[in-house]
Amino acid sequence: MSSSDGSDDRVALITGTNRGSGRAIAEDLRDRGYRIFSLNRSLAGDDWLGERRCDLADPAQIRTAVARVLDEAGHLDVCVSNAVDRVLDPIAELSEADWERLLSINLSAGFHLVKAVLPALRERRGIFVAMGSHAGTRYFEGGAAYSATKAGLKALVETLLLEERRNGVRACLVSPGAIANLDGDESPHKMSTRSIARCVGTIVDSLPGDLVVGEIEVRPADLAEPPVTGIDRLLHV
Q1: Which family does it belong to (predicted)?
Q2: Phi and psi of 119, rounded to 5°?
């Protein structure tokens, strides 16, 4: 139950809640009693999302949007860096503009978001969650920009945990495999956005206070075909 001044409200700020995993995470945290605020480039238009229009490629917009959220909310308990862009071109065909945009949105935005929310998270002994990817450690053709940004995000979150744990701030990287993120995708070989959201919600809301999850890796429970094992892996390198 919230106090009259709202100081007992639990507040979560999430980027990229207009669809997919981000929206599912927002729904899960809302159902757990959090007041939701969102930073979205394209607005979904739902009042409960507490949206602020923000192009995460622009550090100034991140600072301004976070300041407005904190001014309205008064405090912050959880920040989830979820928004992402993908370009899956081979290096020979990858444009410089696409490379720079992915660096800005997938990696640099996480840094600028941390800088903006960190004082508030320190006050509430809160948690910063970043949505990583198996692409950060399992590289593939066409994934240079995406994988590079996710690998960098892993380093950023681990360093944040090392530096800020003494200040009461937890940091966690959620590293998932394939997610059914697109509308209409019901593949049994991918994780649902609801499952990913439940994972994030559990880390944020249901773990003992003397425990921190620095990184969690999650994979689909079902495979499209039997995995390649043993010496047969050499046929697939």
Answers
A1: Belongs to the short-chain dehydrogenases/reductases (SDR) family.
A2: -60, -40
Is residue 131 within a helix (H) or strand (E), and if so which, with residue range? strand 127-131
Look at the block and give the residue holding tokens 């928004």: 83
Structure tokens at 56: 């995460």
Give the pTM: 0.91
Q: What are the pLDDT digits (tens) for 42-53?
A: 999 999 999 999
CATH code for the domain of 61: 3.40.50.720
Report angle CA 84, 87, 92 to the nearest 5 degrees.
Answer: 145
Specify the DSSP element, H or E, that contains 174: strand 170-176
| Tokens describing residue 19 | 């669809």
Determine, yes or no, domain membership for 17.
yes
What is the C-alpha R_g of the chain?
18
> In total, how many domains does the chain have?
1
Q: Are the C-beta atoms of residues 167 and 122 closer than 8 Å to each other?
A: yes
Domain that holds residue 74: 10-236
